[in-house]
Write a structure and sequence with these properties.
With 446 residues, the protein is of the alpha+beta class. It is built from 7 helices and 24 strands. The protein folds into 2 domains: 151 residues, Galactose-binding domain-like (Jelly Rolls, Sandwich), CATH 2.60.120.260; 251 residues, 4-Layer Sandwich (Nitrilase/N-carbamoyl-D-aminoacid amidohydrolase), CATH 3.60.110.10. The strands form 4 sheets. Strands 2, 3, 5, 8, 9, 11 and 12 form a 7-stranded antiparallel β-sheet that branches.
């Protein structure tokens, strides 16, 4: 039973020629394609009684018949405000914000649309639009939506709090003398982590292969297990300060060696392990290091955490997969980015580097946390592309506070994150998975 009062039900369409065929059968709302390719529209319902500060679970089910791609053809969106049945919401002053309801395929015929939403002010009507679009055939039959007020206890904790993050690198040129052993790197990074921990971050991120950086020798000889005396120093810091540490290292796993990022939790245990998928040209790729085989995302109380390492950033799919796997944060320990050099010169261009990282954050709606071995360019960037912290090289560590649920809405008034993911049409991306595709590198050897 709904907590809000259903006030109106009416068909909607942007233009008479685009209007689908609509029929109401009691509590069943039917939308049929009109036989034209311009078909778009459906049913629109208005509910009243929502209160600011309250959260409502909205759920609607749709049964589809003869629709080839229901995730593309059937949509449901929620608008806070009054929306005339011919309005497409472009600049509508009476709408304060809108969001897509998220689809789930229950079975071959039924799709369920759900979303937890909150109005910004009292007594703003909630308008739900059930839509069929872009198909010359088929129909969808909708049940009346269910709307229930829910407790904030049901909302993940990280969506209700601010998260402080620190990137620990040391100052530019602070590393004095040769680094011959792993203990040398531990002696360098551990005190820096201790200092950063005094600021009470929830997460500390260290650079790529922080345990072995600068040590001469083969990675096959330098690699160590994920748990052992080398990592215990950082596990102890995580336990004492009740925080998480992402530690870069050359990992020994029996007869294999990986370039890995290890996520240590506040109990000093390993919460997650990411192995670099795209090995760097110019040495690493022929070194005996094995590439990783996936882009895991780790569920934690501060949010969902994914990783890339260095060369991964050059491949668009790396950050995209972390985003698609549901991450809130993308941690990137990195020695450098070959795209960030000034063209024709081996000179780091901070503007180019910053732009790359901002693009990764916005395209994949993740907070980028970047730890550069040589310090300069280390940064924390929110999902809107705002650079919250940047290290020019003069700081031992940087920090910033992230609010995952920031409420940002662009000019369209839609949820930025929703638009980013719900606009996708994956059935058109088959070339993305073609092993033989080399882009501009055609099959001809010229």
């Amino acid at each position: 039973m709904t907590n809000l009062k259903l006030e109106t039900i009416q068909p909607w369409a942007p233009h008479p020629s685009a209007a689908p065929l609509t029929e109401r059968d009691g509590n069943r709302l039917i939308i049929r394609a009109n036989g034209t390719r311009t078909c778009v529209g459906g049913w629109q319902m208005t509910f009243v009684g929502a209160k600011a500060g309250k959260t409502y679970l909205i759920e609607a089910n749709a049964e589809q018949i003869e629709i080839d791609n229901p995730h593309d053809i059937i949509r449901c969106a929620a608008y806070w405000g009054e929306l005339p049945p011919t309005d497409t919401n472009t600049g509508n002053p009476k709408v304060t914000g809108w969001d897509y309801l998220l689809p789930e395929q229950v079975n071959k015929q039924i799709m369920r649309f759900q979303r937890c939403l909150s109005p910004e002010q009292d007594n703003v009507p909630l308008t739900l639009r059930c839509t069929l679009r872009w198909s010359t055939k088929g129909s969808s039959t909708w049940s009346l939506p269910r709307i229930e007020e829910i407790s904030t206890d049901e909302i993940p904790t990280h969506m209700l709090q601010s998260i402080k993050i620190a990137v620990v690198t040391g100052k530019n040129n602070q590393r004095q003398g040769p680094f011959r052993t792993i203990d040398d790197n531990i002696s360098f990074y551990a005190p820096l982590c201790e200092a950063a921990s005094q600021e009470n971050p929830s997460l500390i991120v260290l650079p790529e292969i922080a345990l072995q950086w600068g040590i001469k020798g083969s990675p096959i000889d330098l690699a160590v297990p994920v748990t052992g005396p080398e990592t215990e120093v950082f596990a102890d810091i995580a336990r004492r300060y009740q925080l998480r540490i992402m530690l870069g290292m050359l990992e020994r796993d029996d007869d294999a060696v990986y370039n890995s990022a290890v996520l240590i939790n506040p109990n000093g245990q390993v919460d997650g392990l990411y192995r670099k998928v795209h090995l760097a040209v110019g040495g690493e790729i022929e070194s005996g290091i094995l590439p990783g085989e996936g882009f895991p995302v780790f569920e934690t109380e501060i949010g969902r955490i994914g990783c890339n390492i260095c060369m991964d950033s050059s491949v668009t799919e790396s950050s995209r997969m972390v985003g698609l796997n549901g991450a809130d944060f993308l941690l990137l320990p990195i020695m450098g980015d070959h795209r960030a050099w000034q063209p024709g010169l081996r000179v780091f261009d901070p503007g180019r580097f910053r732009g790359i990282m901002q693009t990764r954050a916005m395209d994949n709606q993740v907070c980028m946390v970047v730890a550069v071995n040589r310090t300069e360019g280390s940064c924390i960037i929110d999902r809107l592309g705002n650079v919250l912290a940047w290290n020019h090289g003069e700081k031992e560590f940087i920090q910033a506070i992230i609010n995952i649920s920031d409420g940002y809405r662009p000019a369209s008034k839609g949820c930025f994150r929703s638009i980013n993911w719900m606009q996708r049409r994956p059935h058109l991306y088959q070339t993305f998975l073609d092993n033989h595709n080399r882009g501009a590198l055609l099959t001809k050897p010229y």
